[in-house]
Amino acid sequence: GETAEISTTHRTPTGRGRGELILFVDDEQPVLDVGIKILIERGGYQVITARNGADAAAAFVPRASEVRLLVTDLDMPQLDGRSLALALRVIKPSLPVIVMTGGSLETDEKLKAFATAFLQKPCEVQSLLEIVHRTLKNAASGSPFPPKA
To answer: Rounded to an integer, what distance in angstroms lies between the CA atom of residue 76 and that of residue 84?
Structure first.
C-alpha cells in the first residue's frame, strides 16, 4: 500500500492551536489522512481538505473569512500549489501559505513570491506542528516577516 509522507517521530510538544481553521491540500490521500490526524488530534486545529487546487479553491471561497492558513502541496493536478496560493490571496491577501513538496526545491525567490514557509516531504510530525504554530502566531501578530523554517 501507499505510505504517508509525514514521519511519526515524536519530540517535545509545541504550542497547541485554538481551533484555527486550516485548509490542507495534497493530491495524495494518505498524506491528507495523516495531516488531518496530526493537525486535529495533536495540534488542536480544525481542518478542511482538498486533493487538488481546484477543489481547494471551491472549498475556500465560502469559508474565506474563517480560514487562517493554507498548507498545500506544490505539485498537484488541475491547479498547482503556487497557482492556488496566488488565487486565494486575491480573495484574502493576508493568507499565510505553507508549501510542502516531495519534489525538488525551488529557489528562495520563487518561493518568497507566494509562500510564507516551506516544508520538505517527508517531514516529522513535530516539524509540521511547529511551522503551523509559528506561522499562525506570526500572522496574528501582523509580522511582515515569514517564520524561520
So the answer is: 10
